[in-house]
Design a protein that fits this description.
The complex is a heterodimer of chains A (261) and B (247). Chain A is mainly alpha-helical. Chain A has one domain. Chain B has 2 domains: 168 residues, P-loop containing nucleotide triphosphate hydrolases (Rossmann fold, 3-Layer(aba) Sandwich); 64 residues, no CATH class. The two termini of chain B are 31 Å apart. In chain B, helix 3 runs parallel beside helix 5. In chain B, the strands form 2 sheets. In chain B, strands 6-7-8-3-9-10 form a 6-stranded mixed sheet, sandwiched between helices. The chains are: A mainly alpha (261), B alpha/beta (247). At the A-B interface, helix 2 and helix 5 of A face helix 2 and helix 3 of B.
Chain lengths: 261, 247
Amino acid sequence: MFNLADEIIINQIKKMKIIAEIGEYALLMFQAFRRPDKGKVFRRQLMMDFQDLGTNSIGIVAIISLFVGAIIAMQMAYNMDSPLLSENLVGFSTRQMMVLEFSPTIISLILAGKVGSSIASEIGTMRITEQIDALKVMGINPANYLILPKITAAVIYNPILIIFSIGLGIGGGWLACLFTGILPVTTYVNGVQAWYDPFTITYALIKTVVFAFIISSVSGFKGYTVKGGSVDVARSSTQAVVYSSILIIIFDLILTQLLLI
Amino acid sequence: MIEINNISMSFGDQQIIKDISTTFEKGKTNLIIGQSGSGKTVLMKCCIGLFDVDEGNINFDDRNFSKLSEKKRKSIRKEMGVLFQGGALFDSFSVEENVMFPLNMFTKMSDEEKMERVNDVLNHVNLPNAHKKFPSELSGGMIKRVAIARAISLRPNYLFCDEPNSGLDPKTAEMIDALISELTEQFDMTTVINTHDMNSVLQIGQKISYLYKGKLWWEGSNKEIMKTDNKELNDFVFSTELTRRLK
């Protein structure tokens, strides 16, 4: 058992480790955000990352959004049994939930798992197999070459994925109404069109861009700073997902407070 | 020529290399040998700029590499080719793309010129038909040869090889040694090889530096090593019954 003095020292060391890690992250980002050595090579990497991080995520985003949109519409219709509530609320609530929270936040959490682990394990494997050393020895800035295209790809592509997710989610609700008959389709569509505030889309996109930056930069950092072997790569990949997810939730709260309240 | 002047380097309290001075000569295969933990890899990583030395300096043809900023080091780095222990080929690139990578990054060659250079270096390493293969499809010896091809694609003045024979069968290891030796002569490079392999020491060691507990303990050629009476060196080089009989 530790005595009180030991515990104080251990807590201080833990705090210092976190501060050191934040400092390391900031320095890495400073290195990453430099002008690329060759524009042509950067564009090529960016196209590859659009494919890996964006296009390859369309499938999972589409399936989840479609089904969740349908489920939200069905649950709203099932639970709204009071005659005082307008049936338009089913479409309205489905739209609001997709736009405000599900698409930007939950899809970003799913992408943190899919894309974040992929980035951390790819860069981590490059680190332990000396590929990053090879880049450095050639005179290339590895952080800039490896991390900047991934951040750029995520920040550009994720908003597209989120708009796509919102559309599919609302479409999923429409399909649920059509096939189950829980609500007339026209009533659902009227609800979707009701009380529309364009700022909600801006809010969703701002959140998405911030979350995309968190996912790609934190995962890049965890991969880049791996030391050891394959077990450490797996560990850093898990940490990338956990850290990104926690930061997404924290920033969700902060951005909601700043932008909506 | 690479001149190393009184370099020392530590990790925390532990001093890894202590006051080493030597020269690696142009057109020769310069070998660094020593037991595991003797500081060979650290010395090589200091030379290629992956670690910064605490004291002393490293001069590449009278250019003090240790004192330069990372930006200014870049011009010297372009003259270096490095063969890492595991090859360090980029997994997502084919052989052709791996070899072409330094050309894409640092030259203004046309696509035809780059392709010509790729064909030329792949022919040098006897892999004329491997262009479209990926690193996962290559054997250990082929990975080393592609890594050599990438290292020499910019026609470097300095070639560094970290354990080029590790994990290879004796025949392939001999072929890699012969290839490095031949390329050193042909391109008149300063080649530095970090090795444990006694076959390499005896066959291609034109200049051998033996490190012992972080210090430079002995220097000489492969002919001189057979006659030395340095106890630590003899214990290391002639540690097996076979090598003792050879001596």
